[in-house]
Structure formats: structure tokens, C-alpha cells
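A quick aside before the break. I want you to see a complete sequence-to-structure record at least once, exactly as it would be stored in a machine-readable document. Don't worry about memorizing anything.
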Amino acid sequence: MGLLSQVALATSSYYDKLNTQCATLNGTGSVRNSSVGCTTCHDSSYNVNSTGRAFISAGHKPTAAISSILCTLAAATNTAPTANAGPDQSITNALPVTVTLKGTGADKDGDALTFTWSLTKKPAGSQAVLSSTTAASPSFSADVVGQYTAKLIVNDGKLNSSADTVSIIVGKTGNAKPVAHAGLDQHVQIGALVTLSASGTDADNEPLTYLWTLKTPKNSAAVLSNATALMPTFIADLPGRYEARLVVNDGKVNSNADSVMITAGSGNVAPVANAGADKNALLNTEITLNGKGFDADGDSLTYLWSLIKIPKDSSAHMSDATLASPILVADKLGEYVAQLIVNDGVLNSKPDTVLIKVSEPVTSEVSVGLALMLEPSVLMLEEFGKSIIVKANISAVNNVDRLDIPVLVSAKVGRPDGSSQSLGQKRILLKEVYKIYAQYTPKMVGEHTVTVVISDQTGGTLAEQSKKLTVLLQNDDDDDEHDSDGHDDDD
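That is the input. The structure line, written in C-alpha cells, reads:
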């Protein structure tokens, strides 16, 4: 509740109907239908309705003006927003390298948020500056080896959040430390089966292994079903807080630990909102959001979306803010941040947000370089372990002004019998120097063709390259064909 303040209503005349007048907190005058409510009036003939606005009623037309009605005012409660500067990063690309920050903000009141970034630490001699201090995801050029620290504060128009920081370690050579992601906090009922969800990122695109540990309440017998699995489970057998810690390893070094908290209790448990994955979109196109909610009690959920950040002069709005998957039209270039809160009929979830980056369509002026390699190109299955390695390096060519363009990189292999198999796909920005690293196990004698295609947002091909693999010896192994890609799939 805000500070209480006594102010006077302006002089007015009233007729034979209800009239609404209420004063502002600063006492500069009265405003009709003000959102600031009069909670009490010193004159008992003037009442306050359930919304907190002062209604002055007259049974007949008064003969004189009414003036100087003193009311005690209370400002509406506002909750400070929360800032998230994103996960720490470790980068080993040749310098200079572009670093993109990934800030988000959440506000329980659904207020629009503004972002303020600052680089609070950088190596001696670095000239790094942020591309924008007010964007949700600004970038900077890391020009010196060492540690960079960026700080994010968000504001809801009234209050600042606490600051959140992200650390970026930049090195020219050597192995980059991977980053672990233990997932979202959960609230569950006592006795519930809890499923954890691990993920990890590695700047060198090396395969990762996972190791979970579980800290339980006193006297709990909970244990993980498999400490090295991506999605292990355990039963929350007692009330209290369970802390699951995840460490990933790239074969050389462990990541820093990341933790997820699971709170078990009786009674109603607050639901969990999921606003979906971040998106890239084209200007003046419809964007369908993909909201989800989970409730440990199995209660029906309602949805409430809000746009907490939009570009300047944008008039974007949700088609229906109470749908799980509303639609909005991106009418301006820039960043949009949508926030989702779900409710189980009793409790609200914590807010979750999704970032939408809107850009202009890719034009034919974009040029992309692609270098595709196979190791080996002629395969003797018994000699080479029955598999090949697919490598591809991708970069922009002669187009430095348009490096923010998103493109889709996809790889596949065509078999001798005419069938094909996907090796994965990923959306990237052209400013990224991207590398594919995938493994493919053929089972047919003959010619196999590996193809990598780079497409723009309209589906047009920007670059394509194929390499042929000749298999000289039949693989008699009855195991199914297997592949593992070195990059994530993207919807």
C-alpha cells in the first residue's frame, strides 16, 4: 500500500445522478474517474464504492457548489519487477567476436518494462561498448581476451528491479567450458513423481555428458532414478525443498553447477507457466504464441498474456490475451517481450516471458559462404569404424550491414536407394560464425550424398553444397542406422 495523503477535491456542482470525483495523490486538483481511490471521506454524506472511488450522490439538485471535501487516499500496490541477464557464456572464437546478451524481465502486475544494460567489467585495453543499453538482447564486440560482465536492471514505470549480471569469458584458443541448464523451479504435491529436465550448451559443439545430484529434506528417502540421464525422476516423499544440481562435461572440463528447486507441499500448489521458446519473425506478419501451463493438482488453468516490451510507436496487441496461443501482428521492427501468467482458480503462477525479434525479410543481396567437408570421403567400414564425420563452416560474405539476418541451416544425407535422412537443423544469425559437426553411420554399399542448405526466412536458398561419400564394403551389423548431430533442432 502506498503512502496515505489527505487532499481536497476541486469545487464542483452536481445534479440528480451519481457523479464521480476523486483527487490525485499530489493534490494538484481532481480528476474524473481517477485510478487513485478515496478510501475515506470526512463528510459522512459522501460514500465510497467497492472500487475505492468516491461517489457523491444527491437526491435533488443542490442550490450551491460543493467544495473542499477532504479524502484520505491510498496508492495502489505495485510489485517490483525481476531482471534476468541470461546464462553465463564462454567463447573461444577468434577475436573480435560478437557477443549477444539475452535479457528477460518479469512483472507480476503485467506492467510494460524498460531495460537498462551496462558493461560493468571488461579486460584492460578493451574498447567494447553495447550496441544498445535499452534493448532486451543487445550485443557487443569482444576485442580482448578476458572476462566481461554485463548488468541488467528492468523498470515497470514505477520501480527498478534488483540488478542481475551475466559473465562472458572470452579466449582465443583452448577448450570452452560448457554451460549447464537445470530447468525451471517446480511446486508439487507430496508423493508426486518429479521429472527433471537437463540441457547444456558448448561453444565448441562437443558432445556433453550429464551428472545430477539431489539434496533432500531431512529424513527423506528420495533418490534419482538415473543420475546421468537427461530427464531423471524422483518421488518427493516428504514436504519441503529439494535441490537438484546439474553439472555437464564436454569430455575435458566440467561446467559450473546449475540448480533447480522443487518444493513439495500439501494443499493447493501454484501452477507453472511456460511462454514458449524465443522467436524470430518478419515485419507485418502474424506471430502465434505458444503458451502452456502445468498444475501439480490437475486443476484447470486460465491464461493471461501481456506485452511488457514493444518497439517505440508500436500498436501491437494480443488477439485475445486469455488464450493459450494468442496472435499478435509485428507492426514495427525491434524486440517484443510477451509475459504469461496462468491461474488454477486460486493461485497465480510466476510470470514467464518469451522474446520475439522482428526484422525485415532477407533480400537477394545477402551472400553466404559455405565450406562442407566429409571425413573420410571414401569409407571402408571395417577400417574406419563404420561412420563418417560431417563438418561445415558457415559465414556471411561481403554484407557487413546485414549480419543480424536469421537463416535456417539444415543438413541431410541421401542414400543409394533414394531415401534420405536428416542430420538436423538450426536457426542462426549471419553474424555468427557457425560450425556443423555431425556423425552419420551408413549401412548401404554405394554412393551417399551429404547436403547442407542455408535458407532465408521466406524459404529461399542462400547457399547449398553437397559432397559424395562412397561406401565400398557392406556393413553386416544388424543394428539400426544411427546418427547424432552436433547442433539443436529448431521448430
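Two observations worth writing down. The CA atoms of residues 369 and 396 lie 6 Å apart. The two ends are 45 Å apart (CA to CA). We'll return to this after the break.
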